[in-house]
Design a protein that fits this description.
261 residues; globular; two-stranded antiparallel sheet; eight-stranded mixed β-sheet; Carbamate kinase; alpha/beta; homodimer
Chain lengths: 261, 261
Amino acid sequence: MENLYVIKIGGNIVDNPALLTECLAAFAKIKGQAILVHGGGKLATSLAANLGVEQTMVEGRRITDAETLKIVTMVYAGYINKNIVATLQSLKVNAMGLTGADGNLIKAHKRVHASIDYGFVGDVDEINVGLIQKLLAENIRLVIAPITHNGEGQVLNTNADTIAQSIATGLAGSYQVHLIFGFEKEGVLLDVDVPSSLIKHINEPSYQKLKADKVIFEGMVPKIDNAFKALDNGVKSVIIGSAEKMNELINGTTGTTITKT
Amino acid sequence: MENLYVIKIGGNIVDNPALLTECLAAFAKIKGQAILVHGGGKLATSLAANLGVEQTMVEGRRITDAETLKIVTMVYAGYINKNIVATLQSLKVNAMGLTGADGNLIKAHKRVHASIDYGFVGDVDEINVGLIQKLLAENIRLVIAPITHNGEGQVLNTNADTIAQSIATGLAGSYQVHLIFGFEKEGVLLDVDVPSSLIKHINEPSYQKLKADKVIFEGMVPKIDNAFKALDNGVKSVIIGSAEKMNELINGTTGTTITKT
């Protein structure tokens, strides 16, 4: 089977024009099939502040109300997505930017939670694998914004890590899928302030120990949980590391590689 | 050859949720291949006002400066485009929303003008006909936002009528293309305030007379010029009329049909 790289880049990359440019240049150099999933970044937050749209937090979680949804749809699917696509086109990558609504790419449902109404937040139900395969066959590189839809006319704000994991998993039957989480650090670090403390390899037993020792905590936990979910569902490898060193992550010379055993 | 309907809906439709809903329901009922091109509407103007971004006018023409470009990219390619796509998906239309940057769909150049710098405004150079044909063959209905790119990483604000005309023209060799300009009126009217004064048919000689008599003026002139340009380049028919009566426009029971002779 052909290799497919599903690469997620986080908000800290999207927010930093110099880092984003380097990262897209690296993406353009990847050989073979690749899909880019981008996060949101701070532009939506600052736009909301400029427009006087207050960000509602419930039990420490951000709520996507109707006005916030409008803003994230504009920023993620409009500004960020189209500028990434235009930059990639200038690098001779045939990029196409889509949300989950486009071609029914990612169907989701509004999050159901016992005590918190997250608002217009979507949890992924289904990936349109057939459409992705057809576009890949045309050598189109998809650039996916973290917006999905429910099939009933409602767009939904959706976690980009989960989208990347769901796409990687959905395509694991047709490609050798490598899921890469690119961010601003070298990978998973023993000491978050020391780049040289990179943990080169994590498997299930070592993950449990790193969690128990509080080396891995907060935002990294759902990221690595997503990684194991992908591996459990046929994804070949998951790599976490520096977004602008994508090709080094792919050839294994940097980053944290996660495997089951 | 198969029929293809290239339908442009204007800003006054996009701005009016009830009218837009009716219009998309009509679009969903069209038999055969169809492409929707949407205009911008007032949301970008009101967002600019809310953000304190002043609209610069030079010799009566609006200038797209960097901040305005950011706003129109967000509003047209993000909010408007994705909500239209999600609504069409709920109507079981396999819609996919694209800008000219996506898949290099529409290449343009920054407008060159002897005395006015329009800013980030694009004039269309080239349509990626092959990509459109492939997506049509997958029964995907494209929903195109009026944003193009220059191939060098720059997105550009582009007139939606011109995009519709360019796409219609580009596909005229492969389909029997019918170009429809949908707006809030019944068609071209002898008296702009009297819907029953609809002119059912315009050809080149009658257009010259209507222009000389000032029956056709202002914004309708470039629209009809675009219509004749399309007819000169192989488009089968051009129809101007009420956006929510799309199917009646197609079967000829309402609207103004434009032909060469």
